[in-house]
Design brief:
It is a multi-pass membrane protein. This is Potassium channel subfamily K member 1 isoform X6. The protein is mostly helical and 371 residues long. Helices cover 80% and strands 0% of the residues.
Length: 371
């Protein structure tokens, strides 16, 4: 090798070491360092390029993204499984007592109806009807029958004709429409416990059911809040990424209408969040109108809002099929996720505003202290 070739080789080596300022320190690190310093050097992306190439970085990035998404999905699946198991436990604890209570109400209703009919029949002639005692007896029996009907209807028992009641009583069966602790109804109740809505139309009446409800809520409510917070953050990040990707590619006619200052963009984002939330409530109201025939749009929208805010008055409660309860159980967490996403975005805006106003607050405080 001639002197010219050696000089050219040295120049190429020098250029390679000094061309990329990001790779140069890592190469020096690979050559000169060892031990703890070498381990520290391998913590950067360029060191990982030297160790495993760009494929290693892409593989690690994909794994990190997968972990970031897998955690909320795993928590959601755990919450769904926890809700289903809780609903089944509630069913096993409360269904026998519910069947016994329904049977007792049917027997009381049938008995009071028979007493009323017998009293009216015994006092059917004109002379007895004119007497004060006969009228009093009929009123007493009628009042007892009215109380039995009221108690039965409040318990969800369908009050029909005497023949139908006696037939149901002989069969000793509880129909599915009136079974408060069916599978779908039990899961629905478990979801209202975890979301702290508590409509109040279905409650545990046994001691074991009440004790299990306390333990179920103590574990399930924090899990529910964790799931909602995780999905809210994930949705907020997704919305921010989509907005950052779409905004530069907007048409000129639309981009010209967009505000350029930061305050205008924040106001536009808040307005879009409120509009999307109300659109979501409107879609939920339209869905509930398909199942609840006696609800108009305003009642459905009112129910969705009361449910989303976890107020849960209990004045409006869905009484449709099991598909309705499935829609309710899926819409409530989704609405909470949307609300959490708005809260996360609002917290970011508030933090930025607070940091921006810090110099003015310090200046104002300093002027007050100087006075």
């Amino acid at each position: 090798m001639t002197i010219t070739e050696k000089t050219e080789l040295r120049r190429q080596r020098y250029d390679n070491e000094n061309a990329d300022p990001e790779i140069r320190p890592e190469r020096k690190c690979e050559k000169n360092l060892s031990g703890a310093k070498r381990k520290h050097c391998r913590g950067s992306n360029d060191a990982r390029v030297l160790d495993g190439g760009w494929k290693g970085i892409f593989r690690e990035t994909s794994i990190e993204k997968l972990k970031h998404v897998a955690e909320p999905i795993g928590l959601l699946l755990a919450l769904m499984l926890y809700t289903c198991i809780g609903g089944m436990v509630f069913r096993e604890l409360e269904l026998p007592a519910e069947i016994s209570r329904m049977t007792r109400l049917r027997e009381a209703l049938c008995s009071q109806r028979k007493h009323l009919v017998r009293t009216i029949t015994n006092n059917a002639n004109a002379s007895n009807l004119d007497s004060l005692g006969a009228v009093f007896q009929v009123n007493v029996k009628l009042r007892a029958y009215e109380l039995a009907v009221q108690e039965a209807t409040e318990a969800g028992l369908a009050v029909g004709l005497a023949g139908e009641i006696e037939e149901i009583l002989k069969n000793r069966s509880v129909g599915d429409p009136n079974e408060r602790w069916g599978i779908s109804h039990s899961i629905f109740f478990a979801s209202t416990v975890l979301t702290t809505i508590g409509y109040g139309n279905v409650v545990p009446i046994t001691h074991w059911g009440k004790l299990f409800c306390i333990l179920f809520a103590l574990v399930g409510i924090p899990l529910t809040l964790t799931v909602i917070a995780g999905w809210g953050r994930l949705l907020a990040e997704a919305v921010s990424a989509i907005a950052a990707e779409i905004t530069p590619n907007l048409p000129t006619s639309i981009a010209s209408c967009m505000p350029t200052n930061m305050a205008g963009r924040r106001s536009l984002g808040a307005f879009a969040a409120v509009v999307s939330l109300f659109l979501y409530l409107a879609c939920g109201a339209a869905m509930f109108m398909l199942f609840e025939k006696d609800w108009d749009f305003f009642d459905s929208f009112y129910f969705c809002f009361i449910t989303m805010t976890t107020i849960g008055f209990g004045d409006l409660v869905p009484r449709g099929s099991s598909r309705l309860f499935q829609c309710h159980d899926s819409n409530v967490p989704a609405s909470w996720v949307l609300t959490t996403q708005r809260i996360v975005s609002g917290k970011k805006l508030s933090k930025r505003s607070y940091e921006k106003s810090r110099p003015y607050r310090h200046r104002h405080l300093k002027s007050l202290l100087c006075k």
